[in-house]
Amino acid sequence: MSRLGKITRRSLLAGVVAVAGGAAFGVYQIRKPVANPLDPGAGATLNPYVIIDQQGIAIIVPRAEMGQGVHTTLAALVAEELDADWTTIRVLHGPPAAAYYNAALAHGALPVADYRMRDWQRSLTAGIGAATKLLGLQVTGGSTSTVDAYERMRLAGATAREMLKSVAAERLGISAATLNTRDGRVIAPDGQEIDYRDLAEAAATRAVPRVALRPPAEWRLLGRSLPRSDMQAKVTGQAQYSTDIVLPGLKFATVRMVPYLGGGMAGFNAAPALALPGVEQVLDLGTGIAVIARNTFAAIKGAEAVEIDWTPSDLPPDTAAMFDQIARAFDEAPNSRMRDQGKPDDITGQLDAEYSVPFLAHATMEPMGATAWLQDGHLTLWVGNQAPREHLKVAAAAAGLAEDAVTLHTPFLGGGFGRRVETDVTWQAARIASLVPGTPIRLTWSREEDMRHDFYRPAAIARMRGAVEDGRATLFDAQIAAPSVTRAAIGRLTGRALGGPDKGHVEGAFDQPYAIPNYRVAGHLADLDVPIGFWRAVGNSFNGFFHESFIDELAHAAGRDPLAFRLDHVGPESPVAAGVLEAVRAVSDWDTPLPETTARGVAMTWSFGTPTAVVIELKREARQIRIARAFIACDPGRVLDPAIVRSQMESGLIYGLSAALSGEITFTDGRADQGNFPEYDGLRMFNTPRIEVAILQNNPHMGGVGEPGTPPAMPALANALFALTGQRVRSLPLIHHADFIL
Amino acid sequence: MTTRITVNDQSYETDATPDTPLLWVLRDELGLTGTKFGCGVASCGACTVHVAGEAVRSCQVRLGDLWGDVTTIEGLADTPLAALQSAWMRYQVAQCGYCQSGQIMQAAALLSENPAPDDPEIDAAMGGNLCRCGTYSAIRAAIQDAATDMARGGGAG
């Protein structure tokens, strides 16, 4: 019980009810099998993940492929058990459907740090996971896809295989137990082979058998770096994203929405736009306009030409006023104290520090866009999205149609990072298509529209108090203030207002594996209506910076090596986390002294089930600073595709470094100042460090890999800057404080 | 007014206005969607194509100013520079993939001018191409590998 601190079983159960939306669901409903949403026409479907037709085997991966490799790893889960030929399978996203609920999302809902979760708590989250099936959240996010699919999709492959074998056994008049399967064929003991295509239709009518999953030692695809299923299309220009759909009579649209976030539109004059060549129509979208034209260039020129009378919003006028509003949250009682150990109020703080981070845009390479076509009362949409059922509902409402009059396709996403959970572009495309029935439209946002109408990673402030004694931390007392992403984004997604302690607000701070006797993390929710949303690693992305920067301050105050100091505090709490610190120490050669022109910083964050440690090495070059090298050690438990894990770690690191170095969205008169890459850039090849990744598999529980590389990258960079210059930077981005190569 | 242009050795006619950027002619008028829109201000490189063998940002080249034949990602496979696409496959470079057409076209222009670039030369040539997924180390490795492959006389494979 002591390990659980002040979290009682009662509050855990309350957590279950909150996740399930206030209703209590019986086991029967939860266990009831899901309906198969697939209707392949020609060919047969054996379960929601497998279609076999005359072309061969198609595997349904009902998660968005936004670069993270799910259309490879999740397909491999099915292919492994199905004994499909990896080189010939097709991978499809599949339709929006309740069958594709994300059960692993619920894992993060318990008010417990992942690293301390007990077995009975893990089984409890499995129950909540089944309840999310009833909510039907088909979300790609939270680094959950692989964890969620690990059993379910292997079972889909295994049961389909056994159904195929049972048909073959009957045809051959022998026992199914004597049959083997390989490369999409059933193989009899006498060498006779039957292609799955010849068995599928009959197999689809069989009862679903109980099957044991293969032990990892027998795996042929999983555990290896596979050729990605999306690679060829992506290097030949054939991969289709939202705005690559070519349709007969296609017209091109763009939007210009109110730049005062939360403001409105009093009226507009379309005449100057309609006078331009190629511009065909200007449509009223309520808080902005859409222009339809013969091509996107004409549409963008037209949108710029429309004279619009905007109504300002009630937001604080500028960034400084917004930070004042966030700081006011400290005056109110905290929303949460999810870590509260010892007697922090009895300890005199030796270190007091205030940290802050700015709003951040997602800046996906592909600006928001969608293709939509209303034909004979039926709307078809192609939109890269991370929550297809919610997008479908919004599209139906925007077009004034019933949900069954809408078909939604999820093509490849040109980056997601949480942005494409949001339904704004889907609403616009559906509304525009409904205003021009019969005409397919391709909606493309300008980069400026994209950057100025984001759902931003919130700005946040942390007030820290700490103390050290005899080389150890005796006090870590953090207060964190920011508007709540959880409430904003989940509220938009589900239409439900969430209450109670907000875990997402303090994740990355309250749940870190350090043994500190007086250890408290309080979350204060700020009342500020800037549109905010999920962003790679969300709360961890700012709390990781606060927590790991301040740990560094404590280490230096104690006169200790920052990595050894961390190990002393992490070792007793989590051997798995200590393992990644040891590994990063080894790969970065941490204990070898560096010349004066070079310095290292370290940070470690446990997020999305995966402890990840980063060492950044900075080097002075003339008068500038280069991020020369980066070392990552992570432990996501069992690894299914090492190359994808490595590339996700590099990707998360670069996303974090980009933000820490130069990322910030500021506001003037309620409008975002930055509009394009010259004002909001990412790392380029020439200023990206050389990266080494060490992947450990000691974690007994599988964690995510898409996000955990991001949180520790930012504090590791700031800690390295301190090591190099002696300057402790407590506010991001770093370009305001030091001269990096840009 | 009709403009005749050659893209990937095919001749096309378009009556788009002469101030229309090549990017939108390719994507919207000709249906060649492999070339991507990222920024519209030549700061991301997603729209990179070749005009007369030279890498250009197609968002900045107006139809009326076009000075030569155009090669896009869809046409690269028919040239010796397809060695880059093979290397991209070997190194499994793409993540979301959206910037990769531009990355590959930029790298192709580099190798056609400099068949054996060193790291600083690669960094300098590729600095205008943004990748928000951060695939840079794989891109650099793939370029070096393609250069080696082409020097050995590989190519269209």
**In total, how many domains does the architecture of chain B comprise?**
2
CATH structural fold name of the largest domain in chain A: Aldehyde Oxidoreductase, domain 4
| Low-pLDDT windows of residues of chain A | 1-31
The outline of chain A comes out as globular
Helix and strand element order of chain B: EEHEEEHHHHH
Q: In CATH terms, what is the fold-level topology of the largest domain in chain B?
A: DNA polymerase, domain 1
Q: Identify the biggest protein-protein contact and residues per side.
A: A-B, 68 and 60 residues
User: Can you tell me the CATH architecture of the largest domain in chain B?
Assistant: Orthogonal Bundle
Biggest sheet layout of chain A: 7 strands, mixed
Protein structure class of chain A: alpha+beta
Shape of chain B: globular
Q: Percentage of helical residues of chain A?
A: 25-40%
What is the mean pLDDT of chain A? 93
Strand order of the largest sheet of chain B: 4-3-5
User: Which structural class best describes the helix and strand composition of chain B?
Assistant: alpha+beta
How much strand of chain A?
15-25%
Mean pLDDT of chain B: 96
By CATH reckoning, the class of the largest domain in chain B would read Mainly Alpha
Number of strands of chain A: 27
Number of helices of chain A: 20
With helices defined by DSSP (H or I, 4 residues minimum), what is the helix count of chain B? 6
Can you give a write-up of this model?
- The complex is a heterodimer of chains A (742) and B (157).
- Chain A has 20 helices and 27 strands.
- With 742 residues, chain A is of the alpha+beta class.
- Chain A folds into 3 domains: 33-102 and 137-235, Aldehyde oxidase/xanthine dehydrogenase, molybdopterin binding domain (Aldehyde Oxidoreductase, domain 4, 2-Layer Sandwich), CATH 3.30.365.10; 251-313 and 368-444, Aldehyde oxidase/xanthine dehydrogenase, molybdopterin binding domain (Aldehyde Oxidoreductase, domain 4, 2-Layer Sandwich); 319-360 and 455-736, Aldehyde oxidase/xanthine dehydrogenase, molybdopterin binding domain (Aldehyde Oxidoreductase, domain 4), CATH 3.30.365.10.
- The radius of gyration of chain A is 27 Å and the shape is globular.
- Residues 1-31 of chain A have low confidence and may be disordered.
- With 157 residues, chain B is of the alpha+beta class.
- Chain B folds into 2 domains: 3-75, Roll (Ubiquitin-like (UB roll)); 76-151, DNA polymerase, domain 1.
- Chain B has helices at 22-29, 73-76, 82-90, 100-113, 119-126, 136-151; strands spanning 3-7, 10-14, 48-51, 54-57, 70-71.
- In chain B, strand 3 (48-51) and strand 4 (54-57) form a beta hairpin.
- Chain B is globular.
- Chain B starts with a strand and ends in a 6-residue tail after the last helix.
- Chains A and B meet through helix 7, helix 9 and helix 19 of A and helix 1, helix 3, helix 4, helix 5 and helix 6 of B.
